[in-house]
Amino acid sequence: MNLELHYNQKIETNKKDKMKRTITILALALGLFATKAQTVVADFETLPLATNSAYSSTTGVSFSTAGASFQHKYSGYWSGGFSYTNKYDSSTAGFGNIYGVKSLKGYSNSNIYTVAQDKGVINLSAPSNTVDGFYITNTTYAYESMQNGDQFAKKFGGTTGNDPDFFKVTVRGYKGGVLKTDSVDFYLADFRFTNNTLDYLVNTWQWVNTSSLGNVDSLKFFMFTSDNGSFGPNTPLFFAIDNFTTIQSSVGLAKNTNSLKFDNYPNPFNSSIVIRLNSNFEKEATAIIFDINGEILLQQQVTEAQTTLDVNSLQKGIYFLEVVADNYRAVKKISKN
Questions:
Q1: Which pLDDT value is given to residue 37?
Q2: Are 244 and 273 contained in the same domain?
């Protein structure tokens, strides 16, 4: 592609994304919109797939399900990103078995799961998402390599079992094309313990909670190993996921929040804000304050009809106060003197 054309297209895309975010913020500021959240699980079971096969797009087309798009790279073979599969092989070692997992099948013995490679990206389609988490496990290829060693990689722990080896996945979130500072680590293998009996290789599906990353529009997965050579990592950089779960918020008219109303005062505020829920709403709620960029600055449980928030640490400026309870949300514009 012509570099100048590519650059101009990127600028135009960034302008459109920024405009969308600005419109959303303005709508919230005017009280025109509210959001309703729902939990959506991508379990991959409805994706089309022949028996004992794996997704492979010769043109590198991503596959999508449940509001998430999973990057897929192809270079004469599946060369990066994600591929969903129903190939069951928990014992064969080596590169010929890149789709099998040690748990044999998907989470809770499901038929289809997704295998991933280093630096894979998942893009989210809804305007506001929190990824609650997903289940993860080792592929057979990576597990057997770490368990026994192979022509490229060492046996984890070494000959004595004392080598402090590890194999981990780090999950990072992006919002508006900007990499967020927080991350979530999960160790698929950890031999760093002084007591070798605590060393482990994951061979079952384990839950990874990524809700701490907050609202994101995409996730990127980075893999790290203690076994590295002159050409880079020796451990096969593969892992598997299932039941990718998001909390999706759809924007609607404010009338959708009739079952959740709240008052807040004073506004503008100085050091504290009082929140008062409507009298007929008795469920526990959460109060969230975020800035015009969508970054969460304060989050506090609201267990009584009237609660006071300590906001003395906030700088002078414009913010948004969101109250979340059950599946309903309401947002108001606030400001500090």
A1: 63
A2: no
* Domain span including residue 307: 258-337
Structure letter (DSSP) for residue 155 = P
What tokens were used for 241?
A: 């996921």
The whole-angstrom distance between residue 129's C-alpha and the CA centroid of its chain comes to 9
- The confidence score (pLDDT) of residue 259 equals 52
Cα–Cα distance between 167 and 89 in angstroms, integer?
21
35: part of which helix (H) or strand (E)?
Answer: strand 33-42
Task: Please check the confidence at residue 67 and state whether its pLDDT lies above 70.
Answer: yes
- CA distance linking residue 167 with residue 301, whole number of Å: 36
d(CA 184, CA 171): 5
- The tally of domains found in the chain comes to 3
pLDDT the model gives residue 332: 83
* 87 lies in the same domain as 182: yes
Residue 138 scores a pLDDT above 70: yes
- Position 149 scores a pLDDT of 95
Q: Flag whether 20 is in a domain.
A: yes
DSSP state of 62: -
Q: CA angle at residue 82 from 216 to 131, to 5 degrees?
A: 25
Q: How many CB atoms lie within 10 A of CB 232?
A: 9
